[in-house]
Design brief:
Number of domains: 2
Shape: globular
Distance between the termini: 58 Å
Number of helices: 13
Largest sheet: 5 strands, mixed
Number of strands: 7
Strand order of the largest sheet: 4-3-2-5-6
Helix content: 25-40%
Strand content: 5-15%
CATH superfamily of the largest domain: Ribonuclease H-like superfamily/Ribonuclease H
Radius of gyration: 25 Å
């Protein structure tokens, strides 16, 4: 009888151990949050009484040319409904006309050509609530939004063509409330670090910024110079893996915040540093990006840069309006 060959012991496979159990969360205000989700779909939530009262442009503007028939408030309400319900401009015109007729309001809906023209020059205020009169923790990031091009399946299978075009939406949120405070739209060739200064310029000088958090794309000298000029106390931007000290100890002057972060990372590790400075709160802006693309889609319909900017900023404003209804308050289940 042949003796079986001895089997060579196999080394334990890495990463195949017992998976760690994720924390479970429950929403304590589910009834209120559920009603808020329902109210988001109400057209009357977006077409307010204030917008109806200010529907037409009143008085002379003093500018040359024919005066505008519809006010910016009316155009903002109409284009917001278009973005929320993802409709073309002609369908938006028909929906508004039907609603105003049912409400017996003696006003007319702007036609689709008027909406298309006014979209190019509309000024959008994305904040719907005043900025808190407290030291702010602002989280910044950017995301890509498709203008036109192939779908993701075609790109994975056959690659992308030269007509594939993207724009970048740069936003900054309030860590405490989740409101989008800052917003800007650029081409996909614009680096994130170049947009930090224009974003922070939207914050009033009287507002105190206690902390700014961002990913490694903001680890640039221009970003730290901007933050120091705004007297930001805490800067949670992780240096790159191969980062070096910019200003050594034998140099005169105060140490740089970026060098202080790098020394702390070398002392306790990157994971511990992120816990100490609250860097993981940056995940809130990832959630905001996910909500924007889930609710409004991942592409814009306008073919001009000014129209694309208006559409994306209107989405930020609409999301801020949604948060005023109710937000989920969750707690960890033991």
């Amino acid at each position: 009888m042949a003796t079986p060959k001895p089997t060579k012991p196999q080394p334990p496979k890495r990463g195949k151990g017992k998976p760690s159990k994720k924390k479970q969360y429950k929403v304590r205000n589910w009834r209120e949050y559920n009603q808020a989700l329902v109210n988001r779909g109400s057209v009357l939530f977006w077409l307010t009484e204030e917008a109806i009262r200010q529907w037409y442009e009143e008085g002379r503007t003093g500018k040359p040319g024919r005066p505008k028939s519809y006010s910016d408030t009316a155009i903002t309400a109409a284009l917001t409904i278009q973005q929320v319900f993802r409709m073309p401009l002609r369908q938006t015109e028909g929906l508004l006309a039907g609603i105003l007729e049912r409400l017996f309001v003696p006003i007319n809906a702007p036609d689709y050509s008027t909406l298309s023209v006014r979209e190019q020059t509309l000024t959008v205020a994305i904040r719907v609530r005043p900025v808190r009169d407290e030291p702010l923790h602002i989280v910044v990031d950017s995301t890509g939004v498709k203008v036109y091009g192939e779908g993701e399946w075609k790109v994975r299978q056959h690659g992308w063509s030269k007509r594939r075009t993207w724009k970048k939406l740069h936003i900054g949120i309030d860590e405490a409330t989740g409101d989008i405070l800052l917003g800007a739209v650029t081409g996909n060739e614009r680096a994130d670090c170049t947009m930090l200064a224009p974003l922070l310029d939207e914050v009033p000088d009287t507002t105190v910024i206690d902390q700014v958090s961002g990913d490694g794309g903001y680890d640039r000298r221009r970003c730290y110079d901007t933050l120091q000029a705004r007297h930001v106390t805490h800067i949670a931007i992780p240096p790159q893996i191969n980062a070096r000290i910019w200003k050594h100890g034998n140099a005169g002057g105060d140490p740089l915040p970026r060098d202080a972060n790098l020394r702390r990372i070398r002392a306790v590790g990157r994971k511990r540093w992120k816990q100490e400075c609250g860097y993981h709160r940056r995940s809130l802006i990832e959630t905001t990006m996910f909500r924007l693309k889930t609710i409004f889609g991942d592409r814009v319909s306008s073919r001009t840069m000014s129209g694309q900017r208006t559409q994306l900023l209107l989405r930020c404003r609409a999301l801020n309006l949604m948060t005023t209804l109710e937000m989920p308050k969750s707690y960890a289940v033991a």
